[in-house]
Amino acid sequence: MTVSSGSSGWYLRRLSRMGPREVGGRGADAVRRRRWRSAPPPKCPGAAGARFTAVLPPGAIDAVPPDAAKRLVAEADRLMAGRAGFFGVERDDLADPDWWYDPRTGRRAPGGYAFDVPYRDEEAVGDIKQIWEPSRHQYLTVLAAAYAVTGNERYAERVAEHLRSWWAVNPPLRGVHWTSGIELGIRLLSWVWIRRLLDGWPGAAGLFEDNPVAHHQIWHHQRWLAAFPSRGSSANNHVIAEAAGQFAASCAFGWFPASARRRADALRSLERHLRANTFGSGLNRELATEYHGLVLELGLAAVAEADAAGVPVPATVRLVLLRMTDALAAVVDDRLRPPRQGDADDGHGLVLDGAGTDRWGSLLATGDAVFGRLDWWPAVTGADVRTPLLAALIRPGIPSVPLGRAPSPGARPGRTTPSDGWPRPAARARRAAPPNGGQRPARRGQAPDLMAPAAGGDRPVGAGAPVSRPARRPAHFADAGLTVLRGPGGIWCRCDGGPHGFLSIAAHAHADALSVEVRHDGVDVLADPGTYCYHGQPEWRRYFRSTLGHNTLELDGADQSVSGGPFLWTRHARSRVLVADACDASDGGTARWCAEHDGYRGSVHRRRVELTAASRELRVVDEVRGPRREVRLAFHLGPAITADLAGNRALLTWRRDGEDRSAVLDLPGGLSWRAHRGETDPPLGWYSAGFGRREPATTLVGTGFTDGARTFTTVLGFQG
């Protein structure tokens, strides 16, 4: 059962996932909100003599590649005409935006005290994502970047006009834009970069450092973030955005009496939560790939501010960003597309580029500039604006393990942290760990713990000890339960045997245990359908995060994990990987993977996957042990795939780069198979390429029963 967010049932379920410390903290937050409602917002302290010194070094703008600059200017010109697209909705009203308007529903958010606005209620407010997104002001960073590249003052003037408009309409604590910390954090980061990119424009100082209204807004954003951090079971990517924005503003706009304290507090929070949100292998613990990208962007932006301001950051911050970058390089396919795992809302930490810029190629290019690429990294052929600007600020080089004791390889997050700065196991974390939680030695192709020193071992290390980086492309990430099998011709297969999301609510997880995702030369063949929406459309939210909405097996019409709301899971399926021989099948061998989960009480679902290079064949064997139950086995095809289903065999065809490609999907004969496409009651047969967008795609569903121990074998053979 799914309970609507904000209902009494939802609140009870949400409360059940909190610990005593979180309950106490949220109680204190509630008291503070009531107190703030009854008192007018305090006046901002004076910032006499404020100056902005965190400028780009000479030559930084000159390093922007011409192709990237051309895309940037084209995007800026589109914005100047008032046109922009957000989550599948094209707008033409941004020349003079209504900051509280939702173009999808036509509703306008109510005003009043921020914490009284029911932002989760689409009937009362509209689609909150549509309202919030322009007010992250990332389209203004694009306009500011266009000014920096061209020197054309009309871009700068539009930025100033929109900032002054936003500040006038959104005074502190009034309205929907003061309800969510992640929005305030990202907005602060945007303002820092707007001011940096407008340096040289005669009106820049008058817009920021000489402007009491700007001081008032910046200070109240920082006050809000200091008062209401995401905590406990909500300390996911949101808390990192809050800390990164607070830190960036405290470095670049360090004009207030509390700036030094807030900078130090934000840095401590950033360091702590970057480690907590990241597996030792470098993958994000939310197991939602787009949030891996968001957190990496935010972390790199925060380090850029630290280096620009001369503020030392703990070596662990750079270490986490290094291992996240190497992990990203390891999991992308031949076209630089990462897995489509878990929730995705098209969120970015810092936007400086025009449409058509590859996000993941940009992140790898930045990683190359900051840390240096490894020999096995995929080639990045595109160019972007953000990389040379970040690289101009960030001190390059490989971080070193700080003085203390390095964690042993395979160490897991979820630890208490002693004074030497390295994690130790917490008893609660040990009890809660999934069956496969790091107890096995590294398998062939397994990602190492990149926090470990090069020599390995749990031993004292001196300051400056070198950090281990993988000598070959990792394929198995034991702590995250993610395995990538690769074959000839760009065959790429992701196998999911990991935890069900992060923290007690697993907010951005999907019920996708043991699912597979298969591509051929970058084309989705067996696709993860994506996310599509968060608020306001509960039937679609349920579908896209359901077990039936993934390439895995469902029993008795129920999800493997139990949902208590759109961002809340009350019972988590536990998976464990049994075999991960992820040798590269493109070399002529056979890669093997096997895992099982306990999400269906009384039954165990085990899945084996084999990718054989010689036959270009992927074999998926599903075994169900337990009492008689109804089975549905789903395979979701990508939107480019045409399927001709006859009995239990489907001929799959598509085109890539002007060439015809095909595969044969032999489905288990013990099930009755049907093709579904674009159905709405209930939803089935859909693909979401991005947040707010969906399109029909073919889903093949086999129905039947299992009793005792039943095996279902599926074979996907690529023909060309």
TrEMBL record:
Keywords: Lyase, Periplasm, Signal. Residues 127-311 form the Heparin-sulfate lyase N-terminal domain. Residues 432-448 have a biased composition (Low complexity). It holds the Pfam family Hepar_II_III_C. InterPro entries: Chondroitin_lyas, Hepar_II_III_C, Hepar_II_III_N. It is found in: Periplasm. Residues 470-706 form the Heparinase II/III-like C-terminal domain. It comes from the Bacteria. Gene3D superfamilies: 2.70.98.70, Chondroitin AC/alginate lyase. Its main location: periplasm. GO terms for molecular function: lyase activity. Residues 21-45, 401-470 are annotated as: Disordered. This is Alginate lyase family protein. It comes from Streptomyces heliomycini.
